[in-house]
Each structure stands twice: as C-alpha cells, then as structure tokens.
Amino acid sequence: MNYQRILIAIDVYSEYDLLLQRALRIAANPSQIHLVFVTLPKIYFQPYISCVGSDYVAEIQGQAKRRLGEIASDMALPLGQFYLPIGNIAEEIHRLAIDIAADLIIIGTQKRKGFSALLGATASSVLNNAKQDVLAVRICLDGAAC
C-alpha cells in the first residue's frame, strides 16, 4: 500500500531517529511526512509536583517547537507540517491524524514488563483506537531497533 500522508508521533526528549528512518523508507516523498509532539497540560503534573506552573508547559512547548523545526528542516519537510498540541497524547494524535487525513501513524514503543504492560501505554492506546494504520516501531534503550 502506498501511504499518502504519514504522521510521526515524536517524543523530542527520547530516541526518535529510528521512527524517522522508517518513515523515510515508507514515504515516496518527505513532503508526505508530518510530525507531532504532544505536551501534557499542567493538570497532569500538579498531583506530583506542586510547583509546576504555566511557564513549565510553555517552556516544554518552546523546546519541542525548536527541535521539531530542526528535524523538519533536516528532513526537508514543508513548513507547517509539524504540530504541537497540548492534551492527552493518544487523543491528540488521533485528532490530528483525522484533521490532516493521515493514512499511517508511526509511533515508537519500548518493551514493557509486568504491571505497566498490563495497564498499557500511549502506543497501545494509539494502536487500539486509531482509524488509520499504525506502525509501532520497537525502540531499545540505546535507540536501536530491538
């Protein structure tokens, strides 16, 4: 199948090179690739860190915007093909995939064991609720494929 619009969910604070490599192998042209980094809203952090303010979310957004801009430039993506929504990660990925008419979502996943595997992860939520095809790329701690 030839995918026309590919959405790559990237965590700019984690390994993502393998996701980009896979997308470039699949896409006929880099212009088909869109990037997204979802920032969790302040409310997600408040029960754990009482001093998290709105500046924290703005700082994360600023760092992510700079990094996605660098990645987009390196990949020769057209301007405007990276997104920085704030909200629940899986929900925002689903919403954006529909908004841009993506036909493939690429997301990274790490091997989980025990209770965390039972509860699921963002990749699992994206996979189970997406209307599009999803490519879950397994990433080891060193950033290589497992």
Describe what this molecule looks like in 3D.
- There is one protein chain.
- This protein is of the alpha/beta class and 146 residues long.
- It has one domain: Rossmann fold (3-Layer(aba) Sandwich).
- Helices cover 38% and strands 15% of the residues.
- The protein contains five helices and five strands.
- The chain has a five-stranded parallel beta sheet with strand order 3-2-1-4-5, sandwiched between helices.
**Globular, elongated, flat, extended or rod-shaped: what is the shape?**
globular
Cα Rg: 15 Å
Number of helices: 5
Q: Give the CATH H-level superfamily.
A: HUPs
What is the CATH topology?
Rossmann fold
What is the ordering of alpha helices and beta strands?
EHEHEHEHHE
Q: How many structurally independent domains?
A: 1
- Can you give the mean pLDDT? 83
User: Strand order of the main beta sheet, please?
Assistant: 3-2-1-4-5
